Amino acid sequence: MQSRLSTIGLAATLTIITSASCTTLQHTQESAPASASPSDALPNENGFSGLAQVDDSAFLAVHDELIYEDGSRLTLIRMETGMAPTFSPVRVDDWMDPSGPSSDLESICAVPSRFGHFLLAEAGYWESQYGRLFHIELDAQEESAKVLGVAQLPLILDNDPNQDGDQFEGLECTHAGDDSILLVLGERGGSDSYRSGRLRWGTLDLTNHSLTFTSQGKQGVELNAPGQWSDASTNRDISALYVDPEGTLWAAAAEDPGDLGPFHSVIYKVGVFRADPENPIQINQTIDVWKEVPGFKIEALSGPLAAVAGSTLSFGTEDELYGGVLRFL
C-alpha cells in the first residue's frame, strides 16, 4: 500500500545492462493515463508490483497506481533472443466496478487452463473501500485487457490513516476443478498489525466471481522469511509469490526503510502449493535463503523466458524513487 500523495515524474533513460541481465525502467515524461493509446505512453516509472508469464516470450506486469493517479496499471513486456525487451502499456477501458479503476495493484497470477486470463489483486482495503480482485482477459495483439469480473478480497483489518491493515503483496493460483480456482494470498508483514508474513487461501468461482474463504483459509499460516535483516520486526516477509511448474511455492522478502532505501531482498522456497482446499500449502521444515539480492526491493517473481538461456527465475523491483528493474537469475 502506497502513501504518496501525487505521482512523481522522473526524467531519465531506459538502460539495458546486458552484462548483468538487467533492465532499468525510467522515463523522459510522466506516465500516460490508463485510457491512452499504448503507443503514446511509456512503461510505468514506479516499478513492478507483480509479474506473470503470458508465454515463453512475454510477461504481464502490474503497477501500484492509486485511484487518483493516471499511470498505466498494466504493462506487456516482450523479449526475443538477442533483442532488447519492449514495454507496452495495456489499455483497460472499463474496470467493471463502481469504485473505478484499480487502486494499488500489488500482485498477479495467470489463471490455469485459460490462456490469456489473469487475476489481479489490490493490496487491501482503504477505509473500507477497494480490496478487489479483478479477473481479466489479455489481448496481447491489441495491447488491451477486458475485465471479466470483480470479486472482493477478505477484509480482516482495514487500512486507514491510523493503522496499517491487510497488505496482500503476493498472489498465486491453481486449478481446483470445473470453474474453480484455488488461490493463495501473501500478507507481507512488517507492520504493527502484522509483525510476520501470513499465507491465506480461498476459492474463486469463475462463473459468478464469488470468492470464499473457510475459517482455516482466512486464518492461514504464519511465514517468517530467512535472512539477515537490520530489523526483523519491520522486514516484509512476503513481497511476492511464484509457483513453478513443479508446484514449488517461492517467495521474496524485502526491507524498505524509506523511499531512498537502502533496500535489501531475498528469494526463498516456501514449500509446495497443491490443489487441496483444506490444506493447500505444505511448508518446508527448513527454509533457507535461495538468493540474496542487496540494493533492490523485489515485489514481483515469475519464471524464466526463453530469450534468457539458463535462467531459473525472473524478478521485478519497485525501488520507489529509483524506478524499477527486471532481472533474471
Task: Walk me through what this model shows.
This protein has one helix at residues 215-219, and strands at 15-17, 22-25, 50-55, 58-62, 74-78, 86-89, 105-110, 117-122, 125-126, 129-130, 132-139, 144-152, 168-175, 180-187, 197-205, 210-212, 221-223, 236-243, 248-255, 264-273, 281-283, 289-294, 298-302, 314-317, 324-328. With 329 residues, the chain is mainly β. A 5-stranded antiparallel sheet has the order 1-2-25-24-23, with no helix packed on it. Strands 13, 14, 15, 16 and 17 form a 5-stranded antiparallel sheet that branches. Strands 18, 19, 20, 21 and 22 form a 5-stranded antiparallel sheet that branches. The longest helix is centred in the middle third of the chain and has 5 residues, at 215-219. Mean pLDDT is 88; it is low at 2-44.
CA gyration radius, whole angstroms: 18 Å
Uncertain stretches: 2-44
Tell me, what's the shape?
A: globular
The proportion of strand residues reads: 35-45%
Termini separation comes to 27 Å
Order of helices and strands: EEEEEEEEEEEEEEEEHEEEEEEEEE
Q: How many beta-strand segments? A: 25
Strand-pairing-aware structural class:
mainly beta
Largest beta-sheet characterization? 5 strands, antiparallel
Determine the mean pLDDT. Answer: 88
User: What is the spatial order of strands in the main beta sheet?
Assistant: 1-2-25-24-23
Q: Helical percent range?
A: under 10%
The total of helices stands at 1
